[in-house]
Amino acid sequence: MRAVLFTLALTLTAWTPAWAQGYMARALNHPVPGGVAVVGLGNGAATPSAAFENKPVMVLQDSDEQWIALVGLDLKTQTGPHQISIKTASEARTVNFNVDARIYPSQHITLKNKQHVNPDPEQVKRYEREYKQQIEAYASFRPTGPSNIVLDRPVEGGRLSSRFGLRRFFNGEERNAHSGLDFAVPAGTPVKAPADGVVTIVADYFFNGKTVFVDHGQGLVTMYCHLSASEVKPGQTVSRGQVIARVGATGRATGPHLHWNVSMNGNRVDPAIFINAYQP
Fold first, then answer.
1. Which of 202, 242, 243, 248 could form a disulfide with 190 if both were Cys (CB 3.0 to 4.6 A apart)?
2. Between 133 and 162, the higher pLDDT residue
3. How far apart are CA 152 and CA 240, in angstroms?
4. Alpha-carbon distance 50 to 91, whole Å?
5. pTM for this prediction
């Protein structure tokens, strides 16, 4: 009888109906390529640590007092079963979760600047230097948790003009999928920090144009690009709602808009998840 009850307890731990989950699990769990998997870790007194693909992932306590791991899933993540590694002072174990399928549409864009489609060798070298800087910023994992994980919109108003994950064709040539969410707003529109954080990059990049990175803690990093101006400096602490930049059309852009990236544990994920605008 004890064995049956133990098996039943494990089953209930692995599957909890949506109505019984905590607020963050209900709001953010979209376990698809380019999404976020919210994995329940139990109600232990000690804070566990978690890792996915040998990289640390965010662990928070949800509104139902259960510990949860928030796992950012790369667009190239294979569907099917995956697992995270969990450690506490007294044990090490693995917890399984499943990644579901999601199909992303295509987008065709015409650019007047042909070098933003096929850069020359010097521009490629510049891009490679800039890409390395950005990857290092995305890989940051400060132990302090974010002030809020359900984020504010970085700009007020404006339609979502290009969604995350679009297969992109520039002048008929396929390039990387769209790694962020675009807001169609006028040049000069204030860009605000959606949560407290530390500015890690303020730069002018070849593809991104004027760019700002903010590290919110525990692997949550946001990026803002095609800006007309920035209003912060690297190393500066910013508060939720603080103006950090202005919208522009610098870099590879066809007009004024904000391109907003959200990264978790080094993987770019759909920003719409964090502002209650996700579309399956």
1. 243
2. 133
3. 8
4. 12
5. 0.87
